[in-house]
């Protein structure tokens, strides 16, 4: 889970400028000073930071995210199996009471939470064994994304001060998330909820606590109760492909007028974007406003689309029509493409070999410029033309 939180507890008092790098000792001293300036008791902050060590494995994990270089069909087939669907449905029955509560109070369908639970920790079985404090301090010291992780260090201090985290023993994912649905400390402070009624929020050991807390995060990010998030559609052989992509929203009546039809059921009366993860010849989906909330949970385009699709499968939806998409690019070729796009002035979020939303938008713009079908799916022919 990758949610940036705005914490009231962090807003009080003067805030030092974001810093990173330098000696480990000096960096920890800077964290201590900023924590005190934010209102954390010096003894609490010092106790939290006393044993913090730099974790090289965390940095290796941060740099090794090649799985997101896979295309949608490959990625989704690797993550979704009939066994995982069966397990999700079994967990739906096992945790029926908390899912009923989530649906009644927050309007979030159980299949949405089941998909996240499955992907994040395989229903709690694989929660990560990285020391949470060390992971957060290491990633704050690293200069790649300190603006994301530094605030979470202070949130973790708050959790430790109130007895909800043991800095020396609490473990989780390499990026500092904790529990069955992998929540960052700031999100735990804002949205941690007691789902089993024992008076505590235990995200590592209590499925009801974890699921209700995760659903609370989605609700706080704007999930519209009892609305769809994703629907598979059939697209015509020809249309204005430049209208596809997350940046364009039209009414479902407008999409229908262009020949877009639901593969099953009816199109709801909602604004929608047409997503073609592997171009006009591959799978096709309409995404609705709730789909945007997925990007607040995770920034990876292929992960978000797969999680949203998996939720529809858990709910009884059919397997998508893979179509016959044109050959795509390897990770190294995507990196070459990104370098060429950056040279043309596009912001693609860095040349990382991952076909994310920014790279797709840049590809679509270049396809339009070159008079190609602007479906945001990069091919070897496009790379050669650039």
TrEMBL record:
Its EC number is 4.2.2.-. Pfam families: PG_binding_1, SLT_2. It comes from the Bacteria. InterPro entries: Lysozyme-like_dom_sf, MltB-like, MltB_2, Peptidoglycan-bd-like, PGBD-like_sf, PGBDSf, SLT_2. Residues 27-311 form the Transglycosylase SLT domain. Residues 1-17 form the signal peptide. This is Membrane-bound lytic murein transglycosylase B. The keyword Protease does not apply. It is an enzyme of class 4 (lyase).
């Amino acid at each position: 889970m990758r949610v940036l939180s705005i914490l009231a507890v962090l807003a009080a008092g003067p805030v030092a400028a974001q810093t990173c790098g330098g000696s480990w000792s000096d960096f920890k001293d800077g964290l201590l000073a900023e924590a005190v300036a934010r209102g954390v008791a010096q003894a609490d902050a010092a106790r939290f930071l006393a044993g913090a060590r730099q974790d090289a494995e965390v940095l290796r994990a941060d740099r090794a995210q090649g799985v997101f270089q896979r295309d949608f069909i490959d990625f989704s087939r690797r993550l979704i199996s009939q066994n995982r669907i069966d397990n999700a449905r079994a967990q739906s029955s096992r945790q029926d009471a908390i899912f009923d509560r989530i649906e009644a109070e927050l309007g979030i369908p159980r299949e949405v939470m089941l998909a996240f639970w499955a992907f994040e920790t395989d229903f709690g079985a694989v929660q990560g064994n990285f020391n949470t404090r060390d992971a957060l301090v290491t990633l704050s010291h690293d200069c790649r994304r300190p603006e994301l992780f530094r605030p979470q260090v202070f949130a973790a201090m708050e959790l430790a001060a109130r007895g909800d985290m043991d800095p020396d023993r609490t473990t989780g994912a390499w990026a500092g998330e904790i529990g069955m649905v992998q929540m960052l400390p700031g999100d735990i402070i804002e949205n941690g909820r007691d789902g089993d009624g024992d008076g505590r929020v235990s995200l590592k050991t209590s499925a009801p606590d974890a699921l209700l807390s995760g659903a609370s995060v989605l609700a706080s990010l704007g999930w519209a109760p009892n609305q769809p998030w994703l629907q598979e559609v059939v697209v015509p052989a020809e249309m204005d492909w430049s209208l596809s992509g997350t940046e364009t929203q039209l009414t479902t009546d407008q999409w229908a007028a262009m020949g877009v039809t639901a593969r099953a059921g009816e199109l709801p009366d909602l604004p929608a974007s047409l997503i073609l993860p592997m171009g006009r010849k591959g799978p096709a989906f309409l995404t609705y406003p709730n789909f945007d909330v997925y990007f607040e949970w995770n920034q990876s385009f292929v992960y978000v689309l797969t999680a949203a699709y998996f939720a529809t499968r858990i709910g009884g939806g059919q397997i998508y029509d893979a179509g016959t998409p044109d050959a795509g690019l390897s990770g190294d070729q995507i990196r070459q493409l990104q370098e060429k796009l950056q040279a043309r002035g596009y912001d693609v979020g860095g040349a990382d070999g991952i076909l994310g939303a920014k790279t797709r938008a840049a590809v679509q713009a270049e396809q339009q410029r070159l008079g190609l079908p602007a479906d945001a799916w990069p091919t070897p022919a496009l790379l050669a033309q650039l």
